[in-house]
Design a protein that fits this description.
This protein is 26% helix and 30% strand. The protein is an alpha/beta fold.
Length: 201
Amino acid sequence: MIAIIDYDAGNIRSVEKAVMLLGQDVAVTKEREEILSADKVILPGVGAFGDAMGKLRQYGLEEVIHEVVRRNTPFLGICLGLQLLFERSDESPGVKGLGVLKGDIVRIPESEGLKIPHMGWNSLDFLGDGRLFKGLSRQPYVYFVHSYYLRAEDEGIVTAVTDYGTRIHASVESGNIFACQFHPEKSSDVGIQILRNFVEI
């Protein structure tokens, strides 16, 4: 069973539908035992960093996520779900993130001709052999919606980058933890393959 963590964030249902397309049993839940008993866990999300951390703490999910990580259960953060795994965000000064991985979430710099938020399709450049990208051709296009991006402290965990006025760490992998800034559930066949790779880990 795959648990999708429910903390009142946007986009949870589209992730649920995409995973169900792969024939998986899915539970959208905020229940501790259901999350901890899952084979895999997904933290999706669209919204503001500070509000999201507030909800995770309100529902007692911060400790649950740390326990999932300690148990080595495969864990996937998507969009805001990636950002929450890190330590802090320019979007919500003074709010601590989950701190599972080290790095900062910073605002995409203003640049002539670039719209913020970044909404649309961008190609990925792979760094190394990210397990999420097995079976994909080089530089696939995926769908992004964000105004802030990851600057990971350890570039060794970065498995894909994209360029949008700056070099964006688009995907990371560290042990049992996977995360992507883009939306695989909105990225057509490429995204479905990425989700398939995750559920097959």
